[in-house]
Amino acid sequence: MDQLKKSLGSAFLDEDRVFAKIEKKINKPPRMNRTFSLAMVSATVLLALLLGMARLLSPMDVVAGVVTVDLNPSLRIELSKDYTVLNISGVNAEAQSMDLTSLKGLPIQEALMEIVRLSIEAGYLDPLALTSDYILITTVSYDGNDQTFNLDLKKLLSKIQTESPSLDGFNLAFMRAQKQDLQDADDSDLPLWLYLLSKNNPDVISSPTSTVQNYFEDEDLRTEFENEYGEVLEDDHEIDKEDLEEALDELEEQGVDVNDYRRRLATSGVDLNALTSEIRAQLNRIDDDDDEEVSHEDDENENDDDDDDDDEEDDD
Amino acid sequence: MNDIHTEFEKIYRASFPSLSKYVLFRVAQASDMEDLLQNVYADFYRNVLTKKKDVNDVDAYLMQMTQNELKKYYRFKKKAPITLIDVDDNAWVQEIPDADNPHLHVIERSTLEGIETALKRLDFPQQQVLIAKLKLEMTFAEIALSLHSNENTIKARYYRALERLQKEVDK
Known about the structure:
Chain A has 316 residues and is of the alpha+beta class.
């Protein structure tokens, strides 16, 4: 019995192994302290069609397009003609720390869902339906005259929003770019979406830490986007009691007293819209508090660094 | 930070057995158990300990967090909470002491690595009952209660699991 018990112990729910994983997790910055903070999603899906090499390989092995997903993390995905993931690689440190091997061989829709799931797990995205997140999808066709690939991909990915409950609370924005834009963005060392949108407004979004969420929260910029760049598909999920319960659970974990909200939610005939607005405001308040904390910590660290510099100077 | 970490580890070690037991019977596959618990404890560390939030009953608070995490899990997995559906023949299952179980004798002769590999090939319901009985040392009655099933079904599953495990180990 000893051998079996020992094996069970190490195979499942090993206390030390789980503790080690938790330690690794808590050493990553929490989701509230990320630049994206609560309700921040930024993803750019870049698709480039490569022609000419297909005759040497079977059609399903040929790279038909490249998809770049720019959240924080940033990923580059090579697709086959039938939109299956052939290769995937992390472009920045955050992506390189993720286990992406399971995404190979998946259809792009499933791969994107898995990337969303991994990002939620890592704390980059917030899964609450109440918080409005944006996913910006940019497609690039190497054959500028062929828009079929762009259109088909847009159709494919739009379906995810309506069919998957996991994307409740996510708005999809689509835009296109040219192959040359991709090269120029690489040369400028900018994510493609930032390169494209900063062409007209360099002052607003020229900072490398700018986010898609910041961009779409600005009414003027959002209008400009819809007029000049692309289309936004609003999340059409209707907030229900379950969504509000989930948000209240999150607030409760943050130490907010939610008893009154729960009581009201349990009352028949409650004005859900009004309650939703109030709960959303609470979530935003917590988000702002966390941003302030980060800012204070950054200031303190800066002061400490300044003090250290002063000390060094004195020693000299 | 060291004090927080020490306190965290103390709370973790004290609460892990009960939370594992709770989660074991509420997920769809083995790999989800550890992922879920990691999320709970990481959130607890960040949102309670580092922010020095006042919590009267830590165990109850962690349990509440676990329940909240399970709600997210069900939502993302597009699954309803796990309910046990079994073919129950209602026949009384003879309980065989482990010392007399022939499958166990064979299993025990294998290497740890061999057994671990074989365990991972079992279906999750079979893994579940073995973990509950042998790792968490629950009785058949307790396991049945947790899974909203009856004792005979659980016993039958346990012995089938051992039989299957022996076959896997023999491969």
